[in-house]
Amino acid sequence: MTSLPIAAPAKRRTPAKVLPGFNLTLGFTIFYLSLIVLIPLSALLFKTFTLTWDQFVTAVTGPRVMASYRLTFGASLIAALVNVFFGLLVAWVLVRYDFFGKKIVDALVDLPFALPTAVAGISLTALLAGNGWVGQYLEPMGIVLAFNPNGVVIALIFIGLPFVVRTVQPVLEDTEKELEEAATCLGATRWQTFSKVIFPSVAPALLTGFAMAFARAIGEYGSVIFIAGNMPMISEITPLIIIGKLEQYDYAGATAVALVMLVVSFVLLLVINALQTWQRRRSGAPA
Amino acid sequence: MSTGMTSKKVQAGTTEARWIRYSLIGLALTFMFLFLVLPLAAVFTEALRKGLDAYLEALQEPDAWSAIRLTLITAAIAVPMNLVFGVAAAWAIAKYEFKGKSVLTTLVDLPFSVSPVVAGLIYVLMFGAQGWFGPWLQAHDIKIIFAVPGIILATVFVTFPFIARELIPLMQAQGNDEEQAAIVLGATGWQTFWYVTLPNIKWGLIYGVILCNARAMGEFGAVSVVSGHIRGQTNTMPLHVEILYNEYQSVAAFAVASLLALLALVTLVIKSVIEWQHDKDMKASADTPPERPLASTPDALA
After folding, report:
1. N or C: which end of chain A has fewer CB within 10 A?
2. pTM above 0.90, yes or no
C-alpha cells in the first residue's frame, strides 16, 4: 500500500480538491485532541516546573520510588517475555493447527482487553491466595503467588496476553507456505525451517507485541493492586506511589513521578511506532 | 482415508510430527485455561458462593444500583463523544494528505500509552482545588473533581483512541474512489458520508464502539483518582467492587464483578460475530470476479 512513492504526489492533490469536510474534520480533531489530551497533559509539565531541580530529583529518586521502579520495570519485563513465548505459541496453534473449540479459544484471547482490570485483579487474587483454587495446592509446596512481587508478574501476564497473539497472528497467516516448501525441498529439517525461515518473518511482529505488552504493563494499576499486597519497598508499583502521594496532598511529588512515567510511555510509544513501520516495510517489500 | 494419507504426505514438509502438534496445542490450551478460563470461572463461583439468594440480594443494594447507574451514564456520554471524534479524525487522516499527519496519528494513540493513574492525575491538576481552574471553579460552585464530570472526563481520556484507531486503517484501505464518484454525481458531503462511507465502515464502527464501551464501563485507575469514592454518589461499578472487596464483603464484590464479567463476555461475543461476518463478506467479495483488475492504482489514471 505504502510502497508506491511515485503515485503519491498525484494522490496527494486530487482528494483534497474533490472531497469536502477537510477543514471541519481536521479542525474538530485538533480541537478535541487539545481539549481532552494535550492541554491536560501539559498541566503535568507546568506543575513539575513549580519544583526546583533538587526537589524534582528528590521526589523521583527517593528509596521507596526507586524500589517501585525496580518492581514495575522488572515485573513488566518478565511478564512481557513470558507473553512473547506463550503469545507466539498460542498464535502458532491458532493459525497452523485445527482442534475442537478453536473459534472459542480465538475469541477468548481478547478477554483481558474486555474484562475490567479490577475484576481481573480480585479474581486472580481469589485464585492464588492461600485458600484459593490454585493457591491451596501451591502454598504447601512453598510457592506463594499472591501478595508479593510474584502476584504482580501474574497480573501483568494476564493483562499483556492479547498483545503478542494479536500482532503475531496476522503475520503468521500471511507467511508464504512456498518458502517453507522450498526450505524442505532443499533439505532443511522442520526446526531449521522454523528458526531460519518462519521465525525471522514473525520477529518484527513479535518485538512489536513485546513492546506493547511491556508498555501496557508499566502503566497498569487496577489488576495489580489487589494481588500485590502493596508493601512499601517490596510490592509497591509506581502508579501506586503516585496515588499514595496524592492521598497525602503531595501534588508536586505525585506530578514529578507521573512525569517520569509519562516520558517513559512516550518513548515506548515512539519505539512501537518505529517497530510497526519496520514491520510494515518488511512485509510490504517485494520478495 | 487414502486421500487423507496422500495429503498428509504432501504436507509433511510444512507441518510438524503429530506428537509435536498435540503437545503444542496442549501447552497453549493449558496456558489459556490457567490464565483466562480459571479467573473468569472464579468470578462467577465466588459470586454464587453463598447461593443465588445472597447473590441477588447483593445486587439489589441501593449503593450497587447507584454504581450501576453512574457507570451507564458515564459510558452513555463518553462513548458518543469519542464516536464523533473517531469519525472526524478518521475522515481527516484517512481521506487527505497533509503535513504533520503522522504526528497527529501518534498523538491520537497517546492516551493508550499513558498510565490510567497519570490520566486521572492530569485532570486533578487542571480542575482540582489546587489546580489551574480550581479557584475559579470553587468561586462559581462548580464541582468537577470528586464529582461526576471528572469521572466522565477521565473515562473519555482513557477511551479516546478506540474508535479512531479502528476506523483510520479501514478508511485508508478503502480509498476515496467511491466518495469521489458520489461527489462527482452531485451528492453533498453529508449524503456522501451517510450513503457511501458509513455503509462501508459500519462493522469497524460497531467494533470500535463496543470495545470503547467495554473499557468505559470497566475503567478503574483513572476514575479512581478523580472520583473521591463517595458511596452512592461517585462510585462506578469497578470502584464499588474495590470498596466491597476491601470491606471483606466477598460475595457482594464478586456479584457486582460478575456483571462486569458478563459485559466482557457479551463484548467478546459481539466482537467475534462481527469478525466472522467480516470474513464472510471478504470471502463473498473474493468470489465475485473483479470489475477492474487494476483497482488498486486508480489514481494513476486520474
Report:
1. C
2. no
